[in-house]
């Protein structure tokens, strides 16, 4: 075989990659099989004069396919389920002599074997699982068809054509954007890989466009509403653009495993110019602080329009945007919060904290970390690539933490596999297992280069895993879906299987003895004395302890060292020591170590606490009716003894008001500012207004208001 061209392609055939939904290459309107005899006019044969898609919100197509909430004038349907179209011809259709078919095309280089060119034949009866078109009505020159799509169809925007056969070739309709058809995943279809059999869960995990994200500390759990806005104008196109930007081959876009994995990579911009730039250093120049966002809509629309990553996000923002992406495409999804979430940097399934001989954290050796909480997503799908029983909820995480197959992404990882310790199954199961199940191992790095394990805390990580409850804003504990209770025989099997996997992959893991240590469990909300260390009652008293307390990041305040002979010691931390370094969450993370002088036993523990944050107040006056004007007032009072500068207030409410923002140059101490906007709701039912405030010195300030929007009275 010789090469006759200088052009290089990725395979043996000279066919460019088909990886853009937006790219087009229209098929010819006329395909002749040979010369047309003189005097023959192809227009004398059956010709299409018009196509009707029944794409209004009240039409049966959108109602039956649960797509009536999308703010779009295009036809949006779900795969594996029939829908209706009507074709008008230049004369009555005669099935005995007229032959036509509908064609769906996606991308620039459509191929039938790739599923990017779909010829839909007219059949007498529709068959489940196969494309087909059945004539359900004939009236004069019009034909109404029921079109059945495949439950494995590619998800995206298809171009539609009608092709008519003549003795001399094919006549095809020309490109008409009005007939474009979006096809989505279908959780209502039993043959679809994302089928979810519970109606209330479908309503929550697919159709609910407002969510609740939990954060804070396990002893002081806080929540904030998030506008997913998956039905807002332009969001569906933005989600398809995300896959285009990833150069994801169109032929793989019908597989929820591949779609969710690509999405987990593209929602962060770490290595692929994705949607969001992450920042955890409290510097947000030329962007929006993560805590200021109230939803996903502004972020996705800005990314689509600018074609550049949006600044900035942290875990809950990544999770919120990723949830919008999944639900918009039809994949059931929810945001999950894991309290005390480990980041296993070296894949040994444990969290190693290295200490100096004086008890301080050795930041050079300590590469693992523990977040007081971390948010990720769960997506519902079958897993035909895994053994039976490992389908259902899958962990997918778009926060850039560790590299997976060359990109910063995570999942989908089967939660059932994680729970039973089967971490050999793709994707990224060992990392997720460590996030919820790893032991915290405290190791002293001796000056002679040796490492001594001082103590192991087997219960600190993954203490509580939660999500929003179905049908309400309350909290749902899902910890038992990830792990068995500590001490349970099945939990021991879980650890055993995980350790066997490590052994088979030549990783090193040791089971260490546990030491009895503890931290006072008093709640912490306002500045003041902090109860630090409580020794085990099993230790003989009095004994002398030398204790260190420091911020884990070593940024907020200096190390306190003291000696005690009693069980409790309080350290006063003044506001001036941490206000200048307070990060997004208004959260303090303490690391406490102590050494018993008599026995040289080292005690260690970590604790997070969240400070009280003021709120934004939202008020509404006027009729709460679709199509009627009402006035929304946002109010904020500065509670600090210092002037707030560069204050931005953000406001949005899906179906009620588009995302808006307003700048206040400064707000003096104890002063109140008000901002009014006129809103005209366009969606009825239970709605929510969400507001946030951010400034140079105070962030993570929220407010929300529940609304019941009434339908417009019948005229």
From TrEMBL:
The gene is F13A1. PANTHER family: COAGULATION FACTOR XIII A CHAIN (PTHR11590:SF42), PROTEIN-GLUTAMINE GAMMA-GLUTAMYLTRANSFERASE (PTHR11590). The lineage of its organism: Eukaryota, Metazoa, Chordata, Craniata, Vertebrata. The active site is at 315, 374, 397. One of its GO terms (cellular component) is cytoplasm. This is Coagulation factor XIII A chain. SUPFAM superfamilies: Cysteine proteinases, E set domains, Transglutaminase, two C-terminal domains. Keywords: Acetylation, Acyltransferase, Blood coagulation, Calcium, Cytoplasm, Hemostasis, Metal-binding, Secreted, Transferase, Zymogen. Its cofactor is Ca(2+). GO terms for biological process: blood coagulation, fibrin clot formation. Residues 307-400 form the Transglutaminase-like domain. It is an enzyme of class 2 (transferase). Pfam families: Transglut_C (PF00927), Transglut_core (PF01841), Transglut_N (PF00868). It catalyses: L-glutaminyl-[protein] + L-lysyl-[protein] = [protein]-L-lysyl-N(6)-5-L-glutamyl-[protein] + NH4(+). One of its GO terms (molecular function) is metal ion binding. It comes from the Eukaryota. It is found in: Cytoplasm; Secreted. Belongs to the transglutaminase superfamily. Transglutaminase family. Tetramer of two A chains (F13A1) and two B (F13B) chains. Its main location: cytoplasm. Its EC number is 2.3.2.13. Residues 1-28 are annotated as: Disordered. It comes from Equus asinus asinus. Factor XIII is activated by thrombin and calcium ion to a transglutaminase that catalyzes the formation of gamma-glutamyl-epsilon-lysine cross-links between fibrin chains, thus stabilizing the fibrin clot. Also cross-link alpha-2-plasmin inhibitor, or fibronectin, to the alpha chains of fibrin.
